[in-house]
Predict the 3D structure of the following.
Amino acid sequence: MLKYLIVLLGDDCPSFCHYPTRDLGHELMPLSVLQQAVRYAMMENLQVQFLAPDQPLPKAYVEAMSQVEFSLYARKGMHPESDVEIVEVMPGDAETWNPQGVYILRIEGRTLFEQPLRILDIAHRVGRLNVVLTDVDHFGEEDLAKYEAALRAMGSAVVSDYREGHWPLPELNLLTDRMALGQMNNCDAGVNSITVAPDGRFYLCPAFYYDRQPAVGSLEEGVDIPNRQLLQRDHAPICRLCDAYQCRRCVWFNHRTTREQNTPGHEQCVVAHLERNASRRIQLELARELGLDETDIIPALPYLDPFEIANKWNKTNKDDSI
Amino acid sequence: MDKALDTVMTRKGAWRDGMAKNITFIVTKDCQLACKYCYLVGKNAKERMPWDVAKAAVDYVLDHEAEMPQESAVWDFIGGEPFLEIDLIDRICDYIKRELYRRNHHWFNSYRFSFSTNGINYHERRIQDFIEKNKTHLSIGITIDGTERKHDLNRVYKHSERGSYADVVRNIPLWLSQFPNSGTKVTISSADLPYIRESVLHLFQLGIHEVNINCVFEDVWKEGDDKLFQEQLIALADDIIDQGLYRDNTCSFFSEHLGQPMDCRTQNRNWCGAGMMLAVDAAGNFYPCTRFAQYSLRSKDAWIIGNVRDGINQNLLRPFLTLDRCTQSTQECIDCEVAEGCAWCQGENYDAALTPTIYQRSTAICKMHKARVRANNYFWNKLHRVQGKEESPC
């Protein structure tokens, strides 16, 4: 059931996730479309997430937006009232941060591999940090090894920080989210959320708009997602076996790497499992530190890619139900 | 097996069924025929496989022995009509044999060259020479659709629309003398329905003891086709049983493993092996099955998984290798009380789907399957009864 409506207020909104944007000009969403989107959200009981363009919003737009409760995503420093700020270049040491603020840091894997502790330092200085790696689909085995090393370094630092009295732990999606999750917490584009673009049409998420993928309805006609069931986890043979609950399970990434929205590529699975395992290591360390029962720790797994157990043609997979 | 069925001939199945890696060379997209039910919408005389592409494909496969651990290999040659490219095929097969030996490959002496041909030029010297040279490692199926009027209804020459029956049937005795246990594959479309019974009986009379027959998966079926289909199958069942033909012949329409409900937990395997096989075309592109090449697709883009130069992108195979029956099925199919034996073609599913996915099962064949199940039930009930009486004459 849809809960969120993501509204792209212009064609030049920054990306807040894996997808790259493309140059579509600097037009704002027409005011009439914005008003229609707001009305749609009210009628459908959807919570609105506005994604702001890299330009000030006219007063009439602000008025239209104020008709509903919303959260605002914008490039850092562009809209001071934003709830989530997006950073696309690794910030310098002098960067100022809101200690309660929520930030999205979009960087290439290489940047994280080279300075994992700087990223951890940012996480310590903000309310929450979501790191989005923009090139996971190009990761080779060497990159995956470097990613694991970076996660290990950050995990060890988190445990050391704890020993030195730093509490609570920083909120860093790829390191700590999995520890708090007992079930999948995926993006669920098209299931929980739908995006309306400046053209007044619905897309599964902004990525599909920028990637020239087909629309799935319009504000006039409503949402119409063919094969919608394939967006759900129970129709995703690999994901339904998986417990990397923090994984974004990005359906656009899936489509891009495997051609199927319900099938993640190897790289996305391994990245999610490396993060899962990093959370597990932190849990284990802290449990030993505190003398806690280890039964609730994330379990160990013999694989990094659940494809190994989902592959119907792997003779070692005897269970026909998978 | 039920004691009463000991005398019923059973299908032999494909060579090393389930244990062999199937590698398909689309050597040409040309064919002498333009069969009306043919799913190949992009046939042409231009796309012929060059030798360097064929060699690179063989090299790729043999270079990746560890990734293809199957005990055996079936090197399949299709078209169009594969025997139009017999010189290329002969060269490819020689190269495969030589390389298997040189590399001490685990498929050495555990391989087949497989062909599905229209049979028109089967008698020609070059083809016969090839057969003689490779006869211990060959599987050849000639497609003949049944009686002349049934065969010529669809299997016509591409320019004249003249039926090809006469040119095929003349080669059947030669073929059967060389491959006595061979079966033929018959395809049924809407227009063929009135001729099913006579056609299967005709093929038995020609000495073809295994008739593998199926309805096309495309959405061609008209109102009432299921009734007509059922009538034809019941008439065929009567003839097969009354004339005792079941002792020496099989027709794949009748199967003991058909028409029961299926469980999503214990019977969830995908029907189709797309993704486990590997097809290569004249451009050197790899596909999970030939049905995903562009010339097979009406409305979707080709599903290319790599090429002979860059290899296979394993991510593009993941959807195929994790696909199961229930995930791609509608709730109606999952709940179907006669689901067992209902087949699908993954390529047709993809081609017919609302979105570019292999995870939407086409149900165009639904009413035909149900008609088949009813006739199949009739067949086995009658056969059990007849054989019971034969065993207990008093």
User: Anything to note?
Assistant: Residues 181-270+326-389 of chain B form one domain. Chain B touches chain A through 28 residues (CB under 8 Å). Chain B has a mean pLDDT of 92.
